């Protein structure tokens, strides 16, 4: 892949008609900030100990080369006019989009492969002569990672790296804040029931209006959940997002809380089948059992953030399930109103019972009437 990275650098320089030194100088101005973005960066890449100039040059070379490669790949994928590559190019062509770019996209999600978007910002500033490219970079990266996602919010500044962009695309919309817990919720219930158990307790499932992981709510027995497509990349993506939230203090734990919630809700294939029937889970990995196995164990050693919006939903659902009337009503509905035939059988039984009571009353009244005469 290093060969393709160097090719992309040469193509970008040729189109920009600017020397490599300008790009290197621009990135060198934020070299310390870029080095600080990598936790545990080996001394071989830091300009700190011995041969400082040589090590700094190696680090800048890596940043510029990787940044140019990422720009060229995203431009090719978005249909940007990049016509100086051969039609049979292994990366920057239709063939590359089909067979190579998906693996590049997958590698971009790995927590250890994150490239600070500040690098792209500096490279674009030199190439275009404009310094205000933050929103352009955010849109470009999001369209490459999740083309169908909601447009990124404006005015929020440059994201940290591609994984941060991916997380933002899953958490768009207003952040819900949980109200203070009432006195009867002082001791939270740590058990999140499975989807089947909630259904038996009278909870109804509906798909949220958006696919944002923040769009989870419970109102009058209806639990609304965002739709999720479960495919071969789902576990990979969620685990990397959880790692990002764990390593970045202050980033929040919305994705982690969502995974915790879903992991506890999906225990068996029956839970997956129920959520699939409600169009909440779109299963593309095969059997429902495979989906249940995928979610199982992802939230090990994970806890919900106290007083989070999702924790409030958790309390509301458990409070609803503790009411016996809700269970009785659910049992009645599931037993006698599950199908038209069950309802007709119940209606016929009620009708016959009513007729029997009327006949009995009529017989008793007739008896007393005859006795008085």
Explain what the structure shows.
The chain folds into three domains: 2-137, no CATH class; 183-326, no CATH class; 339-372. The chain has 17 helices and five strands. β2 (217-219) and β3 (222-225) form a beta hairpin. The strands form two sheets. Strands 1-3-2 form a three-stranded mixed β-sheet, covered by helices on one side. A two-stranded parallel sheet has the order 4-5. The protein has helices at residues 2-16, 20-28, 31-36, 52-77, 94-99, 101-109, 117-128, 134-145, 162-170, 195-200, 234-247, 254-265, 269-277, 288-295, 309-321, 324-336, 340-372, and strands at residues 204-207, 217-219, 222-225, 228-230, 281-283. With 373 residues, the chain is mainly α. The N and C termini lie far apart (109 Å). α1 packs across α4, α11 packs across α12 and α13 (269-277) packs across α14. The chain crosses the membrane at residues 341-365. Keywords: Membrane, Transmembrane, Transmembrane helix.
């Amino acid at each position: 892949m290093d060969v393709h990275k160097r090719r992309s650098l040469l193509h970008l320089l040729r189109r920009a008609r600017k020397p490599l030194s300008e790009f290197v100088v621009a990135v060198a101005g934020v070299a310390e900030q870029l080095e600080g973005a990598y936790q545990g960066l080996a001394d071989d890449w830091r300009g700190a100990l011995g041969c400082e100039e040589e090590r700094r040059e190696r680090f800048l070379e890596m940043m510029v080369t990787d940044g140019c490669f990422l720009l060229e790949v995203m431009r090719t994928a978005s249909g940007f006019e990049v016509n100086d590559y051969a039609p049979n190019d292994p990366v920057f062509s239709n063939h590359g989009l089909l067979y190579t770019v998906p693996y590049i996209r997958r590698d971009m999600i790995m927590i250890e492969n994150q490239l600070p978007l500040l690098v792209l910002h500096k490279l674009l500033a030199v190439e275009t002569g404009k310094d205000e490219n933050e929103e352009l970079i955010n849109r470009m990266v999001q369209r490459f990672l999740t083309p169908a996602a909601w447009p990124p919010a404006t005015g929020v500044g440059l994201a940290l790296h591609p994984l941060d962009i991916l997380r933002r695309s899953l958490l768009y919309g207003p952040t819900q804040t949980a109200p203070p817990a009432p006195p009867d919720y002082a001791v939270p219930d740590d058990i999140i029931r499975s989807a089947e158990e909630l259904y038996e307790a009278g909870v109804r499932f509906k798909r949220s209006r958006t696919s944002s992981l923040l769009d989870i709510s419970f109102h009058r027995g209806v639990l609304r959940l965002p739709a999720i497509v479960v495919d071969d990349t789902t576990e990979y993506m969620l685990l990397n997002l959880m790692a990002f939230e764990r390593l970045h203090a202050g980033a929040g734990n919305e994705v982690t809380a969502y995974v915790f919630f879903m992991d506890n809700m999906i225990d068996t294939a029956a839970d997956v089948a129920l959520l699939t029937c409600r169009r909440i889970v779109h299963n593309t990995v095969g059997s429902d059992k495979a989906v249940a196995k995928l979610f199982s164990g992802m939230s090990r050693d994970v806890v919900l953030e106290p007083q989070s919006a999702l924790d409030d939903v958790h309390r509301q659902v458990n409070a609803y399930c503790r009411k016996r009337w809700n269970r009785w009503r659910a049992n009645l509905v599931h037993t006698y109103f599950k199908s038209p035939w069950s309802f007709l059988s119940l209606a016929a039984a009620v009708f016959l019972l009513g007729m029997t009571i009327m006949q009995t009353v009529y017989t008793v009244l007739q008896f007393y009437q005859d006795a008085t005469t």
